[in-house]
């Protein structure tokens, strides 16, 4: 169980030093999600290998500390998992890192990246997925 200060430090570390940050030139699927209440954005890039196993992930975004830290934390969970396993990542996994009080009061911020990741999986599995950020429609979550 993390203390409140440890949780704040973790969030700030992910915000200041985001993991997996930047565009991916050769992505197999790209999805962009927006919180319509504030306009904040997260774009998720995935590379998918044999057996629908994720081989690379990155994200870009613009928004509040919670949404961008959560995107860093969420994308850290991705590589090596199959697309089916990505769909099983529960909001609680992110909540465990961010703290339930943060997630409870900022649910849309905390889950923007996870919902965008799920959209990327769905678009890949539906066939003919967007492969650049310019092609990816912006979805509201
Ligand atoms: Fe916009 Fe957090 S305030 S996603």
Number of strands: 4
Order of adjacent strands in the largest pleated sheet? 3-2-1-4
Proportion of β residues? Answer: 15-25%
Q: By helix and strand content, what is the structural category?
A: alpha+beta
What does this structure look like?
With 141 residues, the chain is of the alpha+beta class. The chain has a single domain (4-140), classed as Sufe protein. Chain: A. The chain is 45% helix and 18% strand. The chain has helices at residues 4-16, 65-75, 83-87, 91-98, 100-105, 107-126; strands at residues 29-34, 41-48, 54-62, 138-140. Helix 2 packs across helix 6. The mean pLDDT is 95. Residues 35, 38, 40, 63-64, 66-67, 109, 112 line the site of FE2/S2 (inorganic) cluster (FES).
SSE topology sketch:
Blueprint: H1 4-16, E1 29-34, E2 41-48, E3 54-62, H2 65-75, H3 83-87, H4 91-98, H5 100-105, H6 107-126, E4 138-140
Parallel strand pairs: 1-4
Antiparallel strand pairs: 1-2, 2-3
Residues 35, 38, 40, 63-64, 66-67, 109, 112 line the site of FE2/S2 (inorganic) cluster.
């Amino acid at each position: 169980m993390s203390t409140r200060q440890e949780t704040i430090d973790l969030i700030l570390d992910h915000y200041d030093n985001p993991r997996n940050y930047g565009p991916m030139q050769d992505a197999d699927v790209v999805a962009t999600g927006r919180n319509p209440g504030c306009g904040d954005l997260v774009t998720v890039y995935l590379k998918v290998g044999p057996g629908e196993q994720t081989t690379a992930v990155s994200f870009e975004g613009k928004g509040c500390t919670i949404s961008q830290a959560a995107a860093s934390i969420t994308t850290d969970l991705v590589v090596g998992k199959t697309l089916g396993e990505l769909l099983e990542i529960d909001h609680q996994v992110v909540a465990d890192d961010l703290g339930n009080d943060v997630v409870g009061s900022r649910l849309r911020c905390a889950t923007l990246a996870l919902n965008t990741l799920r959209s990327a999986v769905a678009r890949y599995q539906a066939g003919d997925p967007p492969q650049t950020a310019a092609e990816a429609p912006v979805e509201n979550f």
